Amino acid sequence: MTLPIELFPAALALSASAVACYTDLKSRIIPDRLTLPLIIAGISFYLLWGAAKLDLIAMLSGAIGASVAFAIGYLLWLAGGWAGGDVKLFTSFGALIPSYSSSLFPAPYSSNYPLFPLSVLFNSLIIAAPALAVYLLACKLAGKSALYKSLPITELHEGMIPAETIFERDGKIERVNKFSLTAVFSRPKYDRVLTNPRSAAGLTIEEIQELKKLVSQGKLEDKIRIKIGMPFAPALAAGLLVAVSLGDLYWLILLHLL
Question: How many CB atoms neighbour CB 36 within 10 A?
């Protein structure tokens, strides 16, 4: 019996999700060296597969799936619910499995079109809802923010998402930590931007080194706000597993209600 070609990238995505769960729970980081090669592999896989079939849609499906997943993930990141690693992991799922019809109850939008990331997201949100409610309540009772925390700049790691803009203007280092739609969609007049909350990739090693240098020179306080949240990789992994094996929970609920 010939296995559907979509099972191979699905197996890769499931394996990667297990690794992401481990790193996210252990260090709250989903490393780029895990997610970025997966995105490239997914897009390349469908380019080659589609070219072999002379099917333009199949060729572009990996890129479309990755784009759809990134757009959704980026919006969730802007809302403060996801970290950069979550966005990139979700994007890798879209690149590897843009559509999928081998589950028991696939939704038409995820089996006939490159929108399988929607099934993964719906499943993840449904599965994570109870845990998320408990987490938010615990943060509220403890008097802590569920979305942000402050830590020394000297303790920063690659991929962390800053919750404030640190920039240089007229030779001075300044900060902006207030969110506004104007700041999101405009281009402020900075001479040099040192941290960019709009970057889904998070802080780079070079940016962290520059911040530490400014701290050592006494030009910058050794403190920064970063975005946090409950580790979402386990929810994404569970949503992916259910989507691959069973199908779209939202679609099943909708069919049941109808």
Answer: 14
Residue 181, pLDDT > 50, answer no
The one-character DSSP state at 176 is E
Question: Could you tell me the domains of the chain?
Answer: 7-142+231-257 (1.20.120.1220), 148-227 (no CATH)
Tokens of 256: 């049941």
Integer Cα distance of 140 and 222 in angstroms: 27
At 200, the pLDDT band (50, 70, 90 cuts) reads low
pLDDT band per the 50, 70, 90 thresholds, residue 4:
confident
Q: Other CB atoms closer than 10 Å to residue 255's CB: what's the count?
A: 11
| Token output for 58 | 């199949």
Tell how far CA 36 is from the center of its chain.
11
pLDDT in tens, 115-161: 999 999 999 999 988 877 887 787 777 777 767 788 899 898 887 87
- Say which DSSP state 160 is in: P
Whole-prediction pTM:
0.72
Average pLDDT over residues 174-198: 67
Report the distance separating Cα 77 and Cα 86, nearest Å.
Answer: 8
**Stretch (H or E) spanning 103:** none
Cα dihedral 190, 185, 160, 178, rounded to 10, equals 70
Angle, alpha carbons 218-222-227 (nearest 5°): 145
DSSP annotation string for 199-249 = -TT---HHHHHHHHHHHHTTSS-S-EEEE--S--HHHHHHHHHHHHHTB-H
